[in-house]
Design goal:
3% strand, two-stranded antiparallel ribbon, 5 helices, single chain, 185 residues, mainly alpha, 58% helix
C-alpha cells in the first residue's frame, strides 16, 4: 500500500502578495476572518502541544490528543467552505470529559486565578486561547452565517470549560493549592 503525499513543498511563494489558498482551490486575503480563525486555531493547537510536551498524567494526555485531532478537523472545515465533520458525538465527548473531571474536584466558593502548578498555569493559558478561537469563529460566522459549523463553535466553547477543570485537577493532583480571587472591599 502506498501512502498519499499530502504536502511535498513548504515554500510555494503563492502567498507573497497577501492572499492564500483554501483547500477547495479558492484564494482569499490573509486578513480574511476565515484565515484569522484558522490562525487562532493553529495557535491553540500549538499551545496544547506545548502542554502535552510536559509530563502530564496519561488520562489528561489522551484527552488532549483527542482534542488536538478534533481541532485539526475544525481547521479542515474552515479550509473547505461548506464542509462539516464535527458532530454531536464530538461535543458530547468533550462535555463528558469535563463532567468526569469536575466530579473529582471540590466545589468552588470563589473564582480561581490562573496559575498554580506550571502545567495548570499552561492549561489556563490554553483555555484563554480557546476563548480567542471562539471569538474568531463568531466573527467569521457574523461575516458569513454558513462559514462555521455550529457544533464546532460549541465544541470550542466547551473546550475552554474542559481546560479550566483540567487546570484545577492538575493543581489538585500536584497538591498545589489554588489561588482564589479576593475581591477588593
Amino acid at each position: 500500500m502506498t501512502e498519499k503525499t499530502r504536502i511535498n513543498r513548504v515554500i510555494t511563494r503563492t502567498g507573497d502578495k497577501g492572499d492564500t489558498g483554501l483547500a477547495d482551490g479558492s484564494r482569499v486575503s490573509k486578513a480574511h476572518p476565515r484565515i484569522h480563525a484558522l490562525g487562532e486555531l493553529d495557535e491553540l493547537n500549538s499551545a496544547l502541544g506545548v502542554l502535552r510536551a510536559r509530563s502530564l498524567d496519561a488520562d489528561l494526555d489522551k484527552a488532549l490528543d483527542g482534542i488536538q485531532q478534533r481541532l485539526f478537523d475544525i481547521g479542515g472545515e474552515l479550509a473547505v467552505p461548506g464542509r462539516a465533520v464535527i458532530d454531536d458525538h464530538d461535543l458530547v465527548e468533550v462535555e463528558s470529559q469535563a463532567d468526569m473531571i469536575n466530579a473529582e474536584l471540590p466545589p468552588l466558593k470563589e473564582f480561581v486565578l490562573p496559575g498554580g502548578h506550571p502545567d495548570a498555569a499552561w492549561c489556563h493559558h490554553c483555555r484563554t486561547v480557546a476563548r480567542r478561537v471562539e471569538r474568531a469563529l463568531i466573527t467569521l460566522h457574523d461575516a458569513d452565517e454558513d462559514a462555521v459549523n455550529p457544533v464546532s463553535q460549541a465544541l470550542v466553547n466547551r473546550l475552554s470549560d474542559l481546560l479550566f477543570v483540567m487546570a484545577r485537577l492538575i493543581n489538585l493532583r500536584h497538591e498545589h493549592p489554588e489561588t482564589l480571587w479576593q475581591p477588593k472591599g
